[in-house]
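Researcher: Can you fold this with S-adenosylmethionine in place?
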Amino acid sequence: MSGMTDKPFSVPAERNSAPILDVLRNELAHSTRVLEIGSGTGQHAACFAKALPFLQWQTSDRDENHDGIHAWIFDTGLTNLLPPLSLDVLSADMPVESCDAVYSANTAHIMSIEAVQKMFTIVGTVLQDDGVFCLYGPFRQDGAFNTPSNAEFHKSLRSQNPEMGIRHLEALDEFAREQGLTRIRLYAMPANNHFAIWRKAAQ
Ligand SMILES: C[S@@+](CC[C@H](N)C(=O)[O-])C[C@H]1O[C@@H](n2cnc3c(N)ncnc32)[C@H](O)[C@@H]1O
Protein backbone atom coordinates (compact mmCIF):
# COMPACT_ATOMS: atom_id res chain seq x y z
CA MET A 1 0.00 0.00 0.00
CA SER A 2 1.22 3.53 -0.71
CA GLY A 3 0.06 7.09 -1.26
CA MET A 4 -2.67 9.06 0.44
CA THR A 5 -5.22 6.28 0.22
CA ASP A 6 -4.81 2.54 0.56
CA LYS A 7 -4.26 1.36 -2.96
CA PRO A 8 -3.65 -2.08 -4.42
CA PHE A 9 -0.06 -2.44 -5.60
CA SER A 10 1.40 -4.81 -8.19
CA VAL A 11 5.17 -5.29 -8.27
CA PRO A 12 5.20 -6.47 -11.92
CA ALA A 13 3.07 -3.47 -12.99
CA GLU A 14 5.53 -1.15 -11.23
CA ARG A 15 8.48 -2.85 -12.94
CA ASN A 16 7.10 -2.97 -16.47
CA SER A 17 5.53 0.49 -16.60
CA ALA A 18 8.68 2.29 -17.84
CA PRO A 19 9.36 -0.01 -20.82
CA ILE A 20 5.65 -0.07 -21.69
CA LEU A 21 5.53 3.72 -21.54
CA ASP A 22 8.49 3.95 -23.94
CA VAL A 23 6.47 2.04 -26.53
CA LEU A 24 3.23 3.93 -25.86
CA ARG A 25 5.01 7.27 -26.39
CA ASN A 26 5.56 6.18 -30.00
CA GLU A 27 2.43 4.20 -30.67
CA LEU A 28 -0.03 6.66 -29.11
CA ALA A 29 1.72 9.86 -30.20
CA HIS A 30 -1.21 10.77 -32.46
CA SER A 31 -4.02 9.25 -30.38
CA THR A 32 -6.55 11.20 -28.35
CA ARG A 33 -8.76 8.72 -26.51
CA VAL A 34 -7.61 5.35 -25.15
CA LEU A 35 -9.72 2.55 -23.72
CA GLU A 36 -7.77 0.33 -21.31
CA ILE A 37 -9.20 -3.17 -20.90
CA GLY A 38 -8.44 -4.92 -17.61
CA SER A 39 -6.90 -1.96 -15.75
CA GLY A 40 -6.19 -4.21 -12.72
CA THR A 41 -4.80 -2.16 -9.84
CA GLY A 42 -5.00 1.09 -11.86
CA GLN A 43 -1.26 1.71 -11.58
CA HIS A 44 -0.59 1.64 -15.32
CA ALA A 45 -3.44 4.06 -15.98
CA ALA A 46 -2.17 6.49 -13.34
CA CYS A 47 1.39 6.36 -14.69
CA PHE A 48 0.51 6.59 -18.39
CA ALA A 49 -2.20 9.26 -18.10
CA LYS A 50 0.29 11.43 -16.20
CA ALA A 51 3.09 10.91 -18.71
CA LEU A 52 0.81 11.33 -21.76
CA PRO A 53 -1.38 14.30 -20.79
CA PHE A 54 -2.69 14.79 -24.35
CA LEU A 55 -4.64 11.50 -23.99
CA GLN A 56 -7.99 10.88 -22.34
CA TRP A 57 -7.30 7.58 -20.57
CA GLN A 58 -10.46 5.52 -20.01
CA THR A 59 -9.96 2.77 -17.43
CA SER A 60 -12.14 -0.35 -17.29
CA ASP A 61 -12.26 -3.71 -15.58
CA ARG A 62 -14.58 -6.11 -13.86
CA ASP A 63 -16.35 -4.48 -10.92
CA GLU A 64 -14.25 -6.25 -8.25
CA ASN A 65 -11.24 -4.08 -9.23
CA HIS A 66 -13.01 -0.73 -9.30
CA ASP A 67 -12.30 0.39 -5.72
CA GLY A 68 -8.57 0.11 -6.27
CA ILE A 69 -8.68 1.90 -9.64
CA HIS A 70 -10.75 4.70 -8.09
CA ALA A 71 -8.14 5.05 -5.33
CA TRP A 72 -5.28 5.43 -7.83
CA ILE A 73 -7.28 7.96 -9.86
CA PHE A 74 -8.15 9.93 -6.73
CA ASP A 75 -4.51 10.18 -5.69
CA THR A 76 -3.32 11.42 -9.10
CA GLY A 77 -5.86 14.24 -9.29
CA LEU A 78 -5.56 14.00 -13.08
CA THR A 79 -8.45 15.22 -15.20
CA ASN A 80 -7.48 13.12 -18.25
CA LEU A 81 -7.87 9.86 -16.30
CA LEU A 82 -11.45 8.60 -16.34
CA PRO A 83 -13.15 6.42 -13.70
CA PRO A 84 -13.47 2.73 -14.55
CA LEU A 85 -16.19 1.46 -16.82
CA SER A 86 -17.72 -1.82 -15.81
CA LEU A 87 -16.33 -4.10 -18.49
CA ASP A 88 -16.21 -7.85 -18.50
CA VAL A 89 -15.41 -8.60 -22.14
CA LEU A 90 -17.76 -11.59 -21.99
CA SER A 91 -20.75 -9.31 -21.44
CA ALA A 92 -22.14 -8.06 -24.72
CA ASP A 93 -22.32 -4.31 -24.10
CA MET A 94 -19.90 -2.05 -25.90
CA PRO A 95 -18.04 0.04 -23.34
CA VAL A 96 -17.54 3.29 -25.25
CA GLU A 97 -18.88 4.70 -28.49
CA SER A 98 -15.48 5.01 -30.09
CA CYS A 99 -11.83 5.64 -29.44
CA ASP A 100 -8.64 5.77 -31.47
CA ALA A 101 -6.60 3.39 -29.30
CA VAL A 102 -7.13 0.39 -27.04
CA TYR A 103 -4.50 -0.78 -24.54
CA SER A 104 -4.44 -3.96 -22.49
CA ALA A 105 -1.68 -5.62 -20.48
CA ASN A 106 -1.38 -9.13 -19.10
CA THR A 107 -4.97 -10.01 -19.85
CA ALA A 108 -4.89 -12.52 -22.74
CA HIS A 109 -3.34 -15.32 -20.65
CA ILE A 110 -5.80 -14.70 -17.79
CA MET A 111 -8.98 -14.65 -19.90
CA SER A 112 -10.39 -17.78 -21.51
CA ILE A 113 -9.73 -18.03 -25.25
CA GLU A 114 -13.43 -17.19 -25.85
CA ALA A 115 -12.99 -14.03 -23.80
CA VAL A 116 -9.83 -13.14 -25.72
CA GLN A 117 -11.73 -13.47 -29.01
CA LYS A 118 -14.50 -11.34 -27.55
CA MET A 119 -11.93 -8.74 -26.51
CA PHE A 120 -10.84 -8.48 -30.16
CA THR A 121 -14.51 -8.14 -31.21
CA ILE A 122 -14.90 -5.25 -28.78
CA VAL A 123 -11.67 -3.70 -30.02
CA GLY A 124 -12.82 -4.02 -33.65
CA THR A 125 -16.15 -2.37 -32.78
CA VAL A 126 -14.95 0.56 -30.68
CA LEU A 127 -11.81 1.43 -32.67
CA GLN A 128 -12.01 4.14 -35.30
CA ASP A 129 -10.33 3.54 -38.64
CA ASP A 130 -6.53 3.68 -38.33
CA GLY A 131 -6.86 3.19 -34.56
CA VAL A 132 -4.41 0.87 -32.80
CA PHE A 133 -4.72 -1.99 -30.33
CA CYS A 134 -1.67 -2.39 -28.08
CA LEU A 135 -1.55 -5.71 -26.21
CA TYR A 136 1.29 -6.47 -23.79
CA GLY A 137 2.08 -9.83 -22.26
CA PRO A 138 3.70 -13.22 -22.77
CA PHE A 139 2.90 -14.90 -26.11
CA ARG A 140 3.78 -18.08 -27.94
CA GLN A 141 5.11 -17.76 -31.48
CA ASP A 142 5.54 -20.42 -34.17
CA GLY A 143 4.01 -22.95 -31.79
CA ALA A 144 6.73 -22.52 -29.19
CA PHE A 145 7.34 -20.78 -25.88
CA ASN A 146 10.14 -18.24 -26.13
CA THR A 147 11.73 -19.38 -22.88
CA PRO A 148 11.53 -22.35 -20.48
CA SER A 149 10.25 -19.94 -17.81
CA ASN A 150 7.24 -19.04 -19.98
CA ALA A 151 6.57 -22.76 -20.57
CA GLU A 152 6.58 -23.21 -16.79
CA PHE A 153 4.34 -20.16 -16.34
CA HIS A 154 1.87 -21.63 -18.85
CA LYS A 155 1.84 -24.93 -16.97
CA SER A 156 1.17 -23.19 -13.68
CA LEU A 157 -1.66 -21.11 -15.20
CA ARG A 158 -3.23 -24.28 -16.63
CA SER A 159 -3.03 -26.03 -13.28
CA GLN A 160 -4.83 -23.11 -11.59
CA ASN A 161 -7.48 -22.91 -14.30
CA PRO A 162 -7.50 -24.92 -17.54
CA GLU A 163 -9.01 -21.92 -19.38
CA MET A 164 -5.98 -19.71 -18.69
CA GLY A 165 -2.76 -19.97 -20.67
CA ILE A 166 -0.21 -18.18 -22.82
CA ARG A 167 -1.78 -17.54 -26.24
CA HIS A 168 -0.37 -18.19 -29.69
CA LEU A 169 0.32 -14.86 -31.38
CA GLU A 170 -0.91 -16.34 -34.67
CA ALA A 171 -4.31 -17.08 -33.08
CA LEU A 172 -4.49 -13.47 -31.90
CA ASP A 173 -3.57 -12.30 -35.41
CA GLU A 174 -6.49 -14.33 -36.73
CA PHE A 175 -8.92 -12.82 -34.19
CA ALA A 176 -7.57 -9.41 -35.22
CA ARG A 177 -7.96 -10.18 -38.94
CA GLU A 178 -11.63 -11.08 -38.38
CA GLN A 179 -12.07 -7.53 -37.06
CA GLY A 180 -10.20 -5.80 -39.89
CA LEU A 181 -7.01 -5.31 -37.88
CA THR A 182 -3.47 -6.12 -39.02
CA ARG A 183 -0.43 -6.47 -36.81
CA ILE A 184 2.00 -3.66 -37.63
CA ARG A 185 4.66 -4.11 -34.96
CA LEU A 186 5.92 -6.55 -32.33
CA TYR A 187 8.29 -5.30 -29.63
CA ALA A 188 10.43 -7.65 -27.57
CA MET A 189 10.07 -6.47 -23.96
CA PRO A 190 11.91 -7.23 -20.70
CA ALA A 191 11.06 -10.40 -18.74
CA ASN A 192 10.35 -12.40 -21.94
CA ASN A 193 7.21 -10.43 -22.74
CA HIS A 194 6.12 -8.84 -26.01
CA PHE A 195 4.08 -5.85 -27.02
CA ALA A 196 1.93 -6.45 -30.11
CA ILE A 197 0.39 -3.57 -32.04
CA TRP A 198 -2.47 -4.06 -34.51
CA ARG A 199 -4.02 -1.31 -36.63
CA LYS A 200 -7.56 -1.15 -37.91
CA ALA A 201 -7.59 -0.60 -41.65
CA ALA A 202 -9.62 2.27 -43.04
CA GLN A 203 -12.91 0.79 -44.32
C1 LIG B 1 -2.94 -10.11 -14.47
S1 LIG B 1 -4.15 -8.85 -14.32
C2 LIG B 1 -3.39 -7.52 -15.23
C3 LIG B 1 -3.80 -6.18 -14.73
C4 LIG B 1 -3.09 -4.96 -15.33
N1 LIG B 1 -3.48 -4.77 -16.71
C5 LIG B 1 -1.60 -5.10 -15.23
O1 LIG B 1 -0.93 -5.28 -16.24
O2 LIG B 1 -1.09 -5.00 -14.11
C6 LIG B 1 -5.44 -9.44 -15.40
C7 LIG B 1 -6.61 -8.49 -15.54
O3 LIG B 1 -7.53 -9.01 -16.51
C8 LIG B 1 -8.83 -8.74 -16.06
N2 LIG B 1 -9.77 -9.67 -16.69
C9 LIG B 1 -9.79 -11.02 -16.62
N3 LIG B 1 -10.85 -11.51 -17.28
C10 LIG B 1 -11.53 -10.44 -17.78
C11 LIG B 1 -12.70 -10.28 -18.55
N4 LIG B 1 -13.43 -11.36 -18.92
N5 LIG B 1 -13.08 -9.05 -18.91
C12 LIG B 1 -12.35 -7.97 -18.53
N6 LIG B 1 -11.23 -8.04 -17.79
C13 LIG B 1 -10.81 -9.26 -17.42
C14 LIG B 1 -8.73 -8.96 -14.54
O4 LIG B 1 -9.83 -8.39 -13.86
C15 LIG B 1 -7.40 -8.29 -14.25
O5 LIG B 1 -7.54 -6.92 -14.00
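Model: Folded with S-adenosylmethionine in place. The mean pLDDT is 95.
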